[in-house]
Write a structure and sequence with these properties.
Layout lengths: L1 H21 L8 H12 L2 H4 L6 E10 L6 E2 L16 E3 L24 E4 L33 E9 L2 E2 H7 L24 E5 L9 E4 L1 E7 L2 H10 L8 H11 L15
Parallel strand pairs: 6-7
Antiparallel strand pairs: 1-2, 1-5, 3-9, 4-8, 5-9, 7-8
Amino acid sequence: MTGLSTLLKAGLKEVGKKTAKKNVSITKEVLPKVLDDVLESKQDIETAFKEPTNTIKAYKLFKQNQKTGELFPLFVKMKGNKSLPLNKWIQAEAGELSKSGKVKSSIGDLAYRPGFHSGDLPIATHIGGKVNPLTGKRISDRKVQPNIREKNQVWAEVELPADKDWQSIANSRARIKQDGTPDVKTAHITDEVPYGGSYRYKTNPNMTGNWLISGEMKINRILSNDEVKAINNKSGVSDLPRIEDFLQKKKQGGMVMRSDNYNTQRAI
């Protein structure tokens, strides 16, 4: 109880400081709520975290610092832009919201589905770089789909908690369409981080695989390009190639040209 007593004293001292500035009187009814707020703000998240009993394996794409090897989220930064450690459980943080109610990111506002986003397979063909296969030069047109995996993007095998059934909660929130089937785009959790578990989510029914959105994550290891290919080959899918593989394949296969919507030509 010594630690709690010390914390309570610190909390009361903090209450005194805050209320003195605002000229607020603390009543017996208000004090418990104020203390709860202070104690919550003093909590150490890592000491409160309980390592999961049940887990599942997934894959996640990260941005890697080419000099230090550190891993970072692709678009939504952690607080303080801190890197993500290997072999350690990490708790997700709810990203900063914009005025539109979406999450701020380096590529603009994103839909608010708090939690770490992983996948059943190491494939994310909607995320990557764009180059002209004839010249290797970069393409910036947003209408063009990504065709290469960037050098600073790496896949990792990750572990997700599976102690709490968040899937049932997500499914229960789905909008039911006129034909009686659930709208998969609305089977998600937008008001809290799914701590202690995860749920599968599809942005649309035709999406390859699923997003796995979790409250915690442990990065087990970074995958090599060959490992990524082998895992995807077993499921009959493929991720975006590295630029050297992409250009070499086009060169070996020959070029068949056609006009395209970005005023250049593409090998097919």
